[in-house]
Amino acid sequence: MTAPQEWRRDGAVPQADLDLIRDRVITHGRQQAQGSDAADIAVALYEHGELVAGAFGRTEFQRLYISYLWVADERRGQGLGGDCLRQIEALALRRGCVDVLVETLLDEVAELYEHLGYACISHVHDFVPGFTRHTLLKVWQSRD
């Protein structure tokens, strides 16, 4: 006798199951690629014990993937974003990364990355209405 099936939708699917689906997709992909060395990577700047800027992502297959880079609203325009980027890049270089990949939906942030040596390798116009998804790559060493 087979177990009864039940479809759950939206909010009826527990968060733990959503996390499990994501984790199993990632695990399956890494098994296909073989040799994954994924490791979290992060930098954060604190002033008087309060977080004012930070970046995190992962390194894997000799590539830095930046997931998030954030600067507190009142500290933007002071170069802290570039400082975060240089800090996390330095950590990635010490781990043996040869390039870095980042995405943004903001045109002005894409321009900042380009100013810092990144090349835009793709755009998806209206990825979100009114926003373009920019994918940028910075190469330190050719992969041959």
Binned, the helix content reads 25-40%
Which overall shape is indicated by the principal axes computed on the Cα atoms? globular
Radius of gyration: 19 Å
Q: Element order, helices and strands?
A: HEEEHEHEE
Q: Spatial order of the strands in the main sheet? A: 1-2-3-4-6-5
Assign the CATH class.
Answer: Alpha Beta
| Portion in beta strands | 35-45%
Total count of helical runs of at least 4 residues:
3
How would you characterize the largest beta sheet?
6 strands, mixed
CATH architecture: 3-Layer(aba) Sandwich
Q: What's the number of structural domains?
A: 1
Structural class: alpha+beta
**CATH fold-type name:** Aminopeptidase
Instruction: Give the name of the CATH superfamily.
Output: Gcn5-related N-acetyltransferase (GNAT)
Arithmetic mean of pLDDT? 94
Distance between the termini: 55 Å
